[in-house]
TrEMBL record:
Co-factor(s): FAD
EC number, UniProt record: 1.3.1.98
GO biological process: cell division; cell wall organization; peptidoglycan biosynthetic process; regulation of cell shape
Name used for this protein in its record: UDP-N-acetylenolpyruvoylglucosamine reductase
Cellular component GO terms, alphabetical: cytosol
Length: 307
């Protein structure tokens, strides 16, 4: 563990004691219910606190990891050293005309619902995406033909040095399930979405339809990381996995979902290692059978468990 009492003291000077947890189990904070412990799990309440924590990590050479709401993520069984930062307490959503401003820790689902209430159209596609706003920008999240880059106007980020920057959407290199946010070490604090005026009933009808599709097709009854693989050009990942006769395949407590082959569910107290082993097994099998390389959409972080 990165010790230590000194780091704890510094963190609690920056933010309240209630916002700094030591040896926190990360499986409590991920959709897969997987993951070892974080040395320090910190939930700041202001932009300035985020900046100060980044500067502390730089000054004292403390490893530093951003955790969104843990929806598109696998944390390994050995956990994460240093500081794990979660912005769940920065979650305000406001609207001004056809613009919606949402803080990083807000759920993108809630932003789409806020837009509905304000009769604003453009974010309907996001009504079933479980991630946070920060996570949605990080990976240019999308569903049902829409994606974040379609509606994003700008973002406020903290740089690796702890400085605040406001960036236009086109400065984030938003591509299919990717952005330059991880490469640049940005921490997203806030996003501004540009929407259009619409009709409440029409917007709601689209959202209800997409919600029905999601709930009827996706295995929401078990913990999972969502869609595991990116869509390979010319194919559907779920169909390739299904045609490889892998539906129901299980390693330990991790299983290829019987409801949607593109999902791996934590059916019975799986370890992260079992989950990751199953991902590798799927990739190997599909490559051998169809010659198609499945690329992960889900992010894997942390350390292996040392026996």
């Amino acid at each position: 563990m990165v010790n230590d009492h000194h780091t704890y003291e510094k963190l609690t000077e920056i933010t309240a004691v209630k916002n700094v947890m030591v040896d926190e189990h990360l499986k409590n904070h991920t959709y897969t219910r997987l993951g070892g412990k974080a040395d320090f799990y910190v939930t700041p309440e202001t932009y300035e606190q985020v900046q100060q924590i980044v500067k502390l990590a730089n000054k004292d050479n403390i490893p530093f990891t951003m955790l969104g709401n843990g929806s598109n993520l696998i944390v390994k069984d050995g956990g994460i050293r240093g500081i794990v930062l979660n912005l769940q307490k920065l979650a305000s959503i406001t609207a001004d005309g056809t613009t919606v401003i949402a803080q990083s820790g807000a759920r993108i689902i809630d932003v789409s619902r806020h837009a509905l209430v304000k009769k604003l159209t453009g974010l309907e596609f996001a009504c079933g995406i479980p991630g946070s706003v920060g996570g949605a920008l990080f990976m240019n999240a999308g569903a049902y033909g829409g994606e974040i880059r379609d509606v994003l106007e700008s973002a406020v980020v903290v740089t690796r040095d702890g400085d605040l920057l406001t960036l236009a959407a086109n400065q984030l290199d938003l591509e299919y399930r990717s952005s330059n946010i991880p490469d640049n070490g940005y921490i997203v604090l806030e996003a501004t979405f540009s929407l259009q005026n619409g009709n409440y009933d029409e917007i709601k009808a689209v959202m209800d339809d997409l919600t029905f599709k999601r709930e009827s097709k996706q295995p929401l009854e078990y913990p999972s990381c969502g869609s595991v693989f990116k869509r390979p050009p010319g194919y559907f990942a779920g169909k390739l996995i299904q045609d490889s006769n892998l539906q129901g395949k299980q390693i330990g407590g991790a299983q290829v979902s019987l409801k949607h082959a593109g999902f791996i569910v934590n059916k019975d107290h799986a370890s992260a290692k079992q989950y990751i082993d199953l991902i590798h097994f799927i990739q190997k099998t599909v490559k051998e059978k169809f010659g198609v390389k499945l690329e992960r959409e889900v992010k894997i972080i942390g350390e292996d468990l040392v026996e």
